[in-house]
Amino acid sequence: MRTVTLSSGMVLRPYRLEDAPALFAAVDTDRERLLRWMPWVPHSTTVETFVEFITAARRQEDDGVAFHRGLFDGTTVAGSCGATVDLVNRAAEIGYWLGGAYEGRGVITEAVGLMLGFLFDDYAVHRVVIRAAVENVRSRAVAQRYRFTEEGILREALILDEVPTDAVISSLLEDEWRSRPRGQ
Ligand SMILES: CC(C)(COP(=O)(O)OP(=O)(O)OC[C@H]1O[C@@H](n2cnc3c(N)ncnc32)[C@H](O)[C@@H]1OP(=O)(O)O)[C@@H](O)C(=O)NCCC(=O)NCCS
Questions:
Q1: Which atom belonging to ligand 1 lies closest to the Cα atom of 167?
Q2: pLDDT band for position 182 (cuts 50, 70, 90)
Q3: Which residue's alpha carbon is at the smallest distance from atom 13 of ligand 1?
């Protein structure tokens, strides 16, 4: 997936190793808010953990099994949007987050739309899922904007701030993406 400038002027691009301090700063600034919804946050407490993440992300991208993108507002990391791919089943899972200062502007919805276009149109994926804590209304709203179908509850599938938490799994299929309403 190429580097893209969003309508807000922010840039969606692959991480570089030198982004690790900015990525750490974005997560650390918002740690209390983010750890409510994402299991990896308590395990990512140093710049080094983000160096390891970016190193792994680059290797996974070379193998075609993950596409992680940072959302950059200048040199500041505003958020992230990524996909992991199960090549055998042509299935992908999308994940995302934003710094609190960037919420409510449609940034992630636009980034997810670009990721869906890449996965379905360029990468021949058949199915994309999003898993979100049942109470994560904002994340579920992103999936709903693209008409994902909520399939059910994954019991205690996420450990959020040490609490096993139920997740909703939502999916979008290739033909549903192709028949989406104009403008999406
Ligand atoms: C999940 C998360 C990324 C959603 O962020 P968000 O700001 O709600 O999503 P968007 O950036 O797409 O913005 C949507 C909002 O912008 C508004 N908006 C403005 N312009 C818009 C546009 N062109 N398109 C879509 N929405 C737009 C929408 O109305 C919506 O506002 P509302 O919530 O008041 O209705 C964010 O809440 C977050 O980072 N949460 C913590 C981490 C997390 O939960 N990650 C997901 C784990 S599953």
A1: 48
A2: confident
A3: 106
